[in-house]
Specification:
Strand content: 15-25%
Number of helices: 7
Pfam families: TMP-TENI
CATH architecture: Alpha-Beta Barrel
Order of helices and strands: EEHEHEEEHEHEHEHHE
Keywords: Thiamine biosynthesis
GO biological process, one term: thiamine biosynthetic process
CATH topology: TIM Barrel
Distance between the termini: 10 Å
CATH superfamily: Aldolase class I
Structural class: alpha/beta
GO cellular component, one term: cytoplasm
InterPro entries: Aldolase_TIM, ThiamineP_synth_sf, ThiamineP_synth_TenI
Strand order of the largest sheet: 2-3-4-5-6-7-8-9
Length: about 200
């Protein structure tokens, strides 16, 4: 599997337009991986929205990742919260949210395909969530971890620093939800280079 250097994380509360329209613009701008995070929706509504997002990504060979194992259809890639139990039946791809060396080590033992590491910088999406790790924190924690996606306050101008610190890519929520055309700038910052999943 090729894990893109940019993963768009959804949050419909930050969108000025319907989420499907925002994701469609992000995909049209080059995004190829979306983490569907909106966990507060009732299950039927969430399933319907996931289907709509999948229909946007499938024509371009994109990847839709279900936030959390609960309600994920069999065979769906999932991204687990830090304390969420690992599914009894392993999905085809599994990521996990991490914030510390302990959580990263646990994700590595589980065989996670990627992790998000946050917050790298102070973030408007989750004010007060932290403390921010900074690039030095990313550099210290990424060693020996599954492929790391830097998350939290990462702007296009921060991407190169995150990659230089050892992150394999970035996960972005607020900036792209508010302006999905920014995907072009994020992709330019990563030089469009894919990351190959570790064996």
């Amino acid at each position: 599997m090729i894990l893109p250097r940019l993963v768009v994380v959804t949050d419909r509360t930050q969108c000025a337009r319907p989420l499907v329209e925002v994701v469609a613009t992000a995909v049209a701008s080059g995004a190829r991986a979306v983490l569907f995070r909106d966990k507060d929706l009732p299950a039927p509504e969430r399933s319907a929205l996931a289907a709509d997002l999948r229909s946007v990504l499938e024509p371009v060979g994109g990847l839709l990742v279900h936030g959390g194992a609960a309600g994920a259809p069999p065979g769906t890639p999932v991204h687990l919260a830090a304390a969420e139990p690992f599914p009894a039946v392993r999905p085809p791809l599994v990521g996990r949210s991490c914030h510390s060396a302990t959580e990263l080590a646990s994700a590595a033992r589980e065989g996670c395909d990627w992790v998000t590491l946050s917050p790298v910088f102070p973030t408007a999406s989750k004010p007060g969530y932290g403390p921010a790790l900074g690039l030095d924190g990313v550099a210290a924690l990424a060693v020996g971890a599954p492929p790391v996606l830097a998350l939290g306050g990462v702007g296009p101008g921060d991407v190169a620093g995150c990659l230089a610190a050892g992150a394999h890519g970035v996960a972005v929520m607020g900036p792209v939800m508010r302006d999905p055309a920014l995907v072009v700038e994020y992709l330019a910052a990563t030089a469009g280079s894919p990351v190959t999943r570790r064996p």
